[in-house]
Specification:
The chain has helices at residues 7-36, 44-69, 77-116, 127-137. It is mainly alpha-helical. The protein is elongated. The termini are far apart.
Length: 138
């Protein structure tokens, strides 16, 4: 059975949650500004660590919002899974689509390279020229 809070306790819990979300958002913005700074361009590991931290903070915010504000933390496990499993499938689909898009980009670069190649022009092309040269050599 869920614990019932008084109105004041509920209000206090909501403000604590909003404060936590605000702090996480400020941290994400500061990390994003750190990544955009000119000095950070030369320090690749810093950019990777900041990117991973931003992703981690975003996942935490999503978890907290679903757990507290959508009340999934207080529901039965079956109902929580009906929300969680489609979300995992959506994340899997996003990863698959990004990988597929990357493969298309690589193929597109190969096609553009092949399109930029020059085809020999004039009488130097074809089988007839090779046969004529063989007849002249004999």
């Amino acid at each position: 059975m869920a614990q019932h809070l008084s109105y004041e306790e509920s209000k206090s819990a909501v403000w604590k949650g909003l404060g936590l979300l605000a702090a996480v958002t400020v941290a994400e913005v500061l990390l994003s500004l750190l990544k955009a700074a000119e000095f950070a361009e030369s320090i690749r590991p810093l950019i990777y660590v900041a990117s991973l931290a931003i992703i981690g903070l975003s996942v935490y915010k999503a978890y907290f919002i679903i757990y507290e504000f959508m009340h999934m933390g207080y529901e039965v496990k079956g109902l929580a899974m009906t929300v969680l499993l489609p979300t995992m499938l959506l994340i899997w689909a996003l990863i698959a689509f990004f990988n597929e898009g990357d493969a298309w980009r690589e193929k597109r670069e190969k096609v553009l390279y092949k399109n930029s190649l020059q085809v020999p022009q004039g009488g130097d092309v074809g089988l007839a020229h090779d046969v004529l040269r063989l007849e002249l050599d004999c």
